[in-house]
Amino acid sequence: MELLSDAIKWHVLLVKPRSEKRVGQRLGDLGFEACVPTQTQLRQWSDRRKKVEVVLFNNYVFVATDAKRRNEVFQAGHILKYVQFAGRIATLSDKEAAMIKRLAHLEAPVEITYESFRVGEAVEVLTGPLAGYSGTVTAVSGNARLQLALPSLQCFAQVEVKGEEVKRVE
């Protein structure tokens, strides 16, 4: 008997567009721990500005499950498949899962981008809710934006941070 296969791990589900919150709720009703990070952001239209709740990872829902219950998640509906890389179901590390959960609690606007890794200056966050995480810094209109890599998803989370909140990693 292999104990590792029975361990609960975080996985990524690809869901139908605009169904992330509904799938997350249904997974919770089925007894799964699900995460659909959202953030209230100010959006501008031609005639008004409004605060709206934005899903940070479009078409993705994060779920904690073990191998025995892995297929039960499809009972929630609107789920297309598990995200896979190199033919294997993507599994998040505990640190990545914790970071994804924290993104929803940041006050600074978060933008998720899906692009290849770029060469840049590596830094570690020293203070605040993302303390201990590493990323790459790029300059955006005079403000530092930190890219936190999520290798299991092959994406980045971009967050504004102050220069004194990070240190250079050598």
Topology:
Blueprint: E1 9-15, H1 20-29, E2 33-35, E3 38-44, E4 49-55, E5 60-65, E6 79-82, E7 84-85, E8 88-89, E9 91-92, H2 94-103, E10 110-113, E11 121-125, E12 134-140, E13 143-150, E14 155-161, E15 166-168
Antiparallel strand pairs: 1-5, 1-6, 1-9, 2-5, 3-4, 7-8, 10-14, 11-12, 11-15, 12-13, 13-14
Q: How would you concisely characterize the structure shown here?
A:
With 170 residues, this protein is mainly beta. The chain has helices at 20-29, 94-103; strands spanning 9-15, 33-35, 38-44, 49-55, 60-65, 79-82, 84-85, 88-89, 91-92, 110-113, 121-125, 134-140, 143-150, 155-161, 166-168.
Average pLDDT across residues?
A: 82
The CATH superfamily title of the largest domain: NusG, N-terminal domain
| CATH fold type of the largest domain | Alpha-Beta Plaits
Helix content: 10-25%
Radius of gyration: 17 Å
Helix vs. strand class: mainly beta
Number of domains: 2
Low-pLDDT parts are 115-119
Within the largest sheet, what's the order of strands? Answer: 10-14-13-12-11-15
**Broad shape:** globular
Tell me about the biggest sheet? 6 strands, antiparallel
In terms of DSSP E residues, the strand content is: 35-45%
Topology pattern, helix = H, strand = E? EHEEEEEEEEHEEEEEE
Just name the CATH architecture of the largest domain: 2-Layer Sandwich
CATH class of the largest domain: Alpha Beta
- Helix tally equals 2
- Tally of DSSP β-strands: 15
Distance between the termini: 42 Å
